[in-house]
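Work package 3, deliverable 3.1, input record:
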Amino acid sequence: MLKLIQNEWMKLWHKKGTWAMVALLILAIVGPGIMMKYYETKTAEDITWQENEQQVINSYKDMLKGDDVSEEDKKYFEEQIAISEYRLANDVPSQSEGSVASFMSFASNMLSLVTLFTVILAASIVSSEFSTGTIKMLLTRPMSRAKILTSKLLTTFVFGLFLIAVNLVVSALVGFILFGGASGVELEMVNGQVVEKAVWNDLAYHYLLSGGDFVMSTLFAFLVGSVFRSSSLAIGLTMFLSFMGGMIVMFLSKYEIVKYIWLTHSNLTQYESGNLMIEGITMPFSLTILAIYAVLFLAISYMSFMKRDVTA
Amino acid sequence: MTTQPIVQLQNLSKTIRGKQLIQQLNIDLYPGQITGFLGPNGAGKTTTIRMMTGLMHPTEGTVIIDGLSLQENYEEAISKVGVIVENPEMYKFMTGYKNLLHFARMHKNVTKERIEEVVRQVGLEKRIHEKVSTYSLGMRQRLGLAQALLHRPKFLILDEPTNGLDPAGIREFRMYLRKIAAEDGVSVFVSSHLLSEIELMCDRVAVIQNGKLIDIRDINIETSSFYYIEAAPKDDVAIHLQKFDYNFTVENNGFVVEIKKEDIPKLITQFVNAEIQLFAVQPHQKTLEDQFLEMTGGGQIAKANSK
């Protein structure tokens, strides 16, 4: 099995597209980093941070006076005012110039790019063997089809994890080089108390939650790619669902069934922001539903790959 | 044939969407023997080969390789088989060597030395470290043969193996197949459209049509002898041949007559006595092509049998 993965890994890195993906990912982290650095320093020069915080307080107070402020907005504004006042009172500047942690949490948005690239691989790793005809050479070996498919699935996930690691390391490096010297503390309100934000925990949590969409999209693309043997269909369909998933859930939100489709649950970051797709779902419930779908996707992929006659 | 067959197709049948592509195929293949596999387009050659390599699952029947059922003991059975199905498709973005390394990793006990040995055998050592996308079709065929031989298979299945090889390459290829068949006792199963090629290469041919085996016979053993006779006037010749009960057919300017060698002088004397002008008498060998067309009844593509 290790040798099969070694094979897949070798084939993967002999394709130019793979290198392009990694290069693009690094570019997508470094580029904005440089832009942020120079943009931020320019604006921050003119006024002191105390003046800036005062402006923030004033503007939120103005907004609070408005007529059509919802309960949620009101709570948010009050929290922001409390945080800014806390900064002034305790002499804690915010991170106007950014920090390693804040840059890394910005770069964690690039995980959607990681997911996209992993989906592309998942979609093509089986179907490309069919389209080039090399599947014949691959399946006439003393390795069962199940082993071959498993090696491809594992390679896809190893590649995905590798991209996540690249994301993490590059964003840490870039953050350290560009913003390493900046000081400042991030604050937040917890139970009416202003406390220092646990940025590293939040970051780790965000990475973990992003795993939901990452795993489900990859498995779905793998399923479509190995059943229909068309990488474009697999990529297209997966992308369509990830863009339109929210809409589909909204349309179906009237019906009970919406609770039982994976699209409602795959974006686990909804538990982080608190904006749930539909009411009345919990993390354990979501994880259960996702696990069931993951097994289902895999079962269909394996069954179709093992039973099918190869005519390519 | 007293030796044990290495490959046995037993009642092999394949039905796809109600169409019976292969019907009750029974073929035994023996070690050291090269068997040609012939049939018109659409006869089911490729389907049969795909079932023999595990790419397709038979609807009925089994393929037994060295005593093991391909369906039940897939990994062990297929490890004795080397395959080229149609064009040898390789990973074009990698070098020839990396391709071989890739396939070698999927077998047990294929060493780096073995890879180099095979590369030498197929004559690719000068180009093996170049990308396959730069290879000509003939070179890809050689690489295809190399990957099929890596694990020293007992049974070699080749689908259109000489397609794209130059004459020297074909000759070399033929010699090589003969050598591994004779020396290592490898059983070879070759499908090809090049009948002359099969004729030179094989000990035996199996012919299928409409998914049925219509003939399996040894090559180079003539059951009856034929002579080509050119003589005039034709009408007199025909009358004469009929008189002496010879079977004959008219071909070009002469006659192909089924006649024993020792009867030839007698026939010539009779022609001379009858004042028939005799131009040529020569042995006539039916080519495999003639036999093939005779057996399959022309070139039309077989209609799939509906159930």
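The interface with chain B takes residues 3-4, 6-7, 10-11, 14-16, 132-134, 136-144, 307, 309-311 of chain A (CB under 8 Å).
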